[in-house]
Specification:
The complex is a heterodimer of chains A (about 475) and B (about 200).
Chain A: H1 2-6, H2 32-37, H3 42-48, H4 52-62, H5 74-78, E1 89-94, H6 104-110, H7 112-126, E2 130-135, H8 140-155, E3 171-176, H9 186-193, E4 218-222, H10 223-227, H11 229-241, E5 251-258, E6 264-269, H12 275-280, E7 294-298, H13 318-321, E8 332-337, H14 342-356, H15 362-379, H16 385-398, H17 428-442, H18 444-448, H19 459-464
Helix pairs in contact in A: 3-7, 3-11, 4-7, 4-11, 6-7, 6-8, 14-15, 14-17, 15-16, 15-17, 16-17
Chain B: H1 6-16, H2 26-37, H3 42-52, H4 56-63, E1 77-82, H5 85-89, H6 92-103, E2 116-121, E3 133-135, E4 138-140, H7 145-156
Helix pairs in contact in B: 1-2, 2-3, 3-4
The chains are: A alpha/beta (about 475), B alpha+beta (about 200).
C-alpha cells in the first residue's frame, strides 16, 4: 500500500505529444536530479535570455488557454493589469476540487519543478514580484512534493534572490487551503489567501488583474496552464501551435472516470480528440464497462450540462462544445452507463454544490439547499410530480431564462448553447442546478416514474370552495 | 487545549514573514495548531490572534469556514470516504454503509476508543481510482469493503503509523526559505516602482 501512495496512479501515457507529462514515466519524476537530467529549467534560461516583453509575446502568440475552467488565454490575461501599478502578484490556483477533475494534483505530485519553472517564467514575463502557490488543503502529498521541490530550487539558485545570478528575483511562497470548493474561484482564492473566509468578490470591481490580492494587480493562473510554459519557452510558440487546433492549441489533461473499462488521466491533443475517441478508443478508455450502453456523460466537470451519445463525435474544442450546450470546464468527463439511476446520480452532484455553497448569495445558499432536499425526496420515492416543477422553478431563480442543454434526436430537442444567465456572483449556484436540469430535460421519464401524482391544491381555490363556515 | 509551543511559535513567525500582510498566514498557522493538538483549540486561536495581530473572533471567523479545521478532538485517524459522482457511480455508498457497520458508528462520529472518526467527504480528486478515501489525507484507491476491513485492522494494530501521521499533520516537509536566498515580503504600499528586470533588456 505504501507504493501506491508514493506513486499515485491514474495517469495513462500514450503515443502522443507530451507537453506537461513528459517526466511522468520516471519513478523519481519529482526530484530535482531527474528534472535537471531531462531539460529542467532550460525554459527559464531561454526566458531570461530575452527581454521580459518578448517572453510575454511568445506566450500570447502560443494562445495558451487557461486550463482551470474558463479557458481564457494566459498571455492576454497577463496584459490586463493596469499600467504602472506595482507590485503585482502571481497566485497559482492549485485548489483543484471540481468533481471529476484531477490533473493539477498529478502535475504537482509528479513534476513539481515543472510548475515552479512555469511560475518563474510567468513572473518574469509579466513583472510579477511575488508568487503564492495555493494548494488544496486535502492534498498532503502534493504539498509535500512542492515543499521539497521549492527547498531544492532555492538551494540551487532557481528561486529567490538574483535567480541564476541575474537581476530577476522572485519568491515562491507555498500556501495551502483547508477544505472549501468555492476557493477554486479566483476571487474567493484571493480572499482565502488574505486569511479570510473564502467567499467570492463581486466583479466588477474586483477583477484580480486590476484589483486582486491586497488590492494590487494579481494574475491568477491554473497549475496546468503554468506547467505548459517551460515546454513553450524551450520549443517556441510555433511548435506549440503546431499541436492541436488554431483556437485550442497544445495539449490538455483530461480525466475520464465512471463506467468505462479503463478510467484514467490522459494528455490529449487539444481541439481534435473527440469524446468517442476518449470513451471508446483503445489508447484511451476502451469502451463502456461490460460493453454496456452509454447513457450519458458529463463533459467538463460536475458543473457542466450533460451530454448523451448524440454528442460523442464532438471534439474536445470549446468553440464546438459551447454551442452544443455544455462546456469543457476543467477537463473532466464522468461516464454513466445504462445501469445508472439518473436522479440518484444527479443528486450526488447537486448535494456537492449545495454543501459547498459559501452562503454569500441567497439564490445559491437557499436554492442549492432546496434543490438538494427536493431531489432527495424524489430519489427516496416520497416526492410528488409538483416537486419536478418546483425543481425547475428554484433553478430558474438561480439561472433565469433558458438553461443550456444538449440536443437530443429521440426527444426532438434542439440545443440551447452555453452559457447561462445567473443571479449569483460565482458558478457554484448554477452548478447545483446544472445536473438537475440536464437530468430532467434528458431523462424526465425516470423522474416521473419515481414520483406520485399529487397535485398541489392552491390555497385560494380551497378558500373559494368553502361556503363561509369553517367545517 | 493549548497555546502554540515555542518551537511552533518560531515556525509561525517564519510563515508570517513570507506574506506582505500577516493575516495571510492565518490558515497555515491554524494547520500548525491542528498539527500540534490534533484539533484547533480555543487557546490556540487566541494565541494565533496575538501572533497575527487580529482578534480571536476573526481567527475563528476564518477557521470556521473551512471543513478541515476541527474545534473538538477527533479520532487519531480521520477516515474520509468520498461520495461525489464518480465514486458514487463506482460503489461508494456501499463502502460507507460497510464502514458504518464495521465501526459501529454513523458518519460524522468517532469510535468509542478514539481511533477513527468517520466522515462523508466530497470529491477528493482521484476520480479514476473510484471509490477512493483518505485517512488523514493519505489516499486509498479503488477500495472494496474487504480492503476497508484490512485498512481498519491495520490502523488499529498500529501497522500504518510510519505512513500515516496522526490527525493534523499534512505535509511532513515544510518550506524553508534560507535568509540569504529569499527576496522577502514587503507591504504593497512600500513598493511603487516596476521590478528591476522590466528594463527592456534580457536578464541573462
Amino acid at each position: 500500500m505504501t507504493s501506491t501512495y508514493a506513486h499515485a496512479p491514474g495517469f495513462v501515457a500514450g503515443d502522443r505529444p507530451k507537453i506537461v507529462t513528459s517526466r511522468f514515466e520516471f519513478a523519481d519524476s519529482y526530484t530535482i536530479e531527474r528534472y535537471l537530467a531531462t531539460n529542467g529549467y532550460a525554459g527559464l534560461r531561454a526566458a531570461l535570455s530575452q527581454p521580459a516583453a518578448s517572453v510575454h509575446d511568445e506566450v500570447k502568440n502560443a494562445t495558451v488557454l487557461g486550463r482551470g475552467g474558463a479557458g481564457f488565454p494566459a498571455g492576454t490575461k497577463w496584459g490586463l493589469t493596469p499600467q504602472e501599478v506595482w507590485p503585482r502578484y502571481l497566485v497559482v490556483n492549485g485548489d483543484e476540487s471540481e468533481p471529476g477533475t484531477y490533473k493539477d494534483r498529478l502535475l504537482m505530485e509528479r513534476d513539481p519543478h515543472q510548475l515552479i519553472e512555469g511560475c518563474l517564467i510567468a513572473c518574469y514575463a509579466a513583472g510579477l514580484s511575488r508568487c503564492f502557490l495555493y494548494i488544496r488543503g486535502e492534498m498532503a502529498l502534493a504539498q509535500e512534493r512542492m515543499a521539497t521541490a521549492l527547498n531544492e530550487a532555492y538551494a540551487a539558485g532557481f528561486v529567490g534572490k538574483n535567480i541564476l545570478g541575474t537581476k530577476f528575483s522572485v519568491d515562491i511562497v507555498l500556501h495551502w487551503g483547508a477544505g472549501a470548493y468555492v476557493v477554486g474561484e479566483e476571487t474567493a482564492l484571493i480572499e482565502s489567501l488574505e486569511g479570510n473566509r473564502g467567499m467570492p468578490r463581486l466583479k466588477p470591481p474586483f477583477f484580480p488583474a486590476a484589483n486582486g490580492l491586497y488590492g494590487q494587480p494579481t494574475i491568477v493562473n491554473n497549475v496546468e496552464t503554468l506547467a505548459n510554459l517551460p515546454w513553450l519557452l524551450c520549443n517556441g510558440s510555433e511548435a506549440y501551435t503546431a499541436i492541436g487546433t488554431k483556437t485550442s492549441p497544445g495539449t490538455r489533461m483530461v480525466a475520464v472516470s465512471g463506467h468505462v473499462k479503463r478510467p484514467g488521466v490522459f494528455e490529449i491533443i487539444n481541439g481534435v480528440t473527440t469524446f468517442r475517441d476518449l470513451l471508446y478508443g483503445d489508447e484511451f478508455c476502451g469502451g463502456i464497462r461490460n460493453d454496456n450502453k452509454l447513457k450519458a456523460f458529463v463533459p467538463g466537470g460536475g458543473s457542466a450540462p450533460w451530454f448523451t451519445p448524440d454528442q460523442l463525435d464532438l471534439p474536445f474544442e470549446a468553440s464546438q462544445v459551447g454551442p452544443a450546450g455544455s462546456m469543457l470546464g476543467s477537463g473532466a468527463i464522468m461516464v454513466m452507463d445504462e445501469t445508472t439511476d439518473i436522479p440518484a446520480a444527479a443528486l450526488t452532484l447537486t448535494r456537492f454544490y449545495a454543501h459547498e455553497s459559501c452562503g454569500k448569495c441567497t439564490p445559491c445558499r437557499e436554492g442549492g439547499t432546496w434543490l438538494e432536499r427536493i431531489l432527495t425526496r424524489v430519489v427516496e420515492g416520497t416526492g410528488t410530480d409538483a416537486d419536478l416543477d418546483q425543481l425547475v422553478e428554484v433553478g430558474s431563480s438561480i439561472c433565469p431564462g433558458d438553461f443550456p442543454h444538449a440536443s437530443n434526436a429521440d426527444l426532438g430537442l434542439a440545443a440551447v448553447p452555453f452559457p447561462y444567465k445567473m443571479t449569483t456572483i460565482c458558478f457554484v449556484g448554477p452548478s447545483a442546478y446544472a445536473p438537475v436540469h440536464s437530468a430532467l430535460t434528458l431523462f424526465r421519464s425516470e423522474f416521473e416514474a419515481r414520483v406520485t401524482t399529487r397535485k398541489r391544491i392552491p390555497v385560494t381555490a380551497a378558500a373559494s370552495s368553502t361556503t363561509g363556515h369553517a367545517s | 487545549m493549548s497555546r502554540l509551543t515555542d518551537a511552533n511559535v518560531a515556525i509561525a513567525y517564519e510563515i508570517i514573514g513570507r506574506y506582505p500582510r500577516p493575516k495571510s498566514a492565518l490558515i497555515p498557522i491554524l494547520h500548525l495548531a491542528q498539527e500540534q493538538d490534533g484539533y484547533v483549540a480555543q487557546d490556540a486561536m487566541k494565541h494565533i490572534a496575538d501572533l497575527v495581530g487580529v482578534t480571536s473572533a476573526e481567527v475563528f471567523g476564518t477557521a470556521s469556514f473551512y471543513e478541515m479545521f476541527k474545534f473538538e478532538p477527533v479520532g487519531k485517524y480521520l477516515l474520509n470516504i468520498c461520495g461525489t459522482m464518480s465514486c458514487a457511480l463506482m460503489g461508494s455508498e456501499e463502502l460507507m454503509h460497510h464502514a458504518e457497520k464495521r465501526l459501529g458508528i454513523k458518519a460524522g462520529s468517532t469510535t468509542p476508543d478514539g481511533l477513527i472518526t468517520l466522515e462523508h467527504a466530497e470529491c477528493q480528486a482521484a476520480c479514476t481510482e473510484a471509490p477512493c478515501l483518505q485517512v488523514n489525507y493519505r489516499y486509498r484507491f479503488k477500495m472494496t469493503p474487504a480492503e476497508l476491513d484490512t485498512l481498519i485492522d491495520d490502523l488499529a494494530a498500529g501497522k500504518l503509523a510510519d505512513e500515516i501521521p496522526s490527525h493534523g499533520v499534512l505535509a511532513t516537509v515544510r518550506q524553508h526559505i534560507p535568509a540569504d536566498r529569499g527576496v522577502g515580503a514587503v507591504a504593497p504600499e512600500k513598493v511603487n516602482e516596476s521590478p528591476e528586470w522590466l528594463d527592456g533588456k534580457s536578464a541573462l
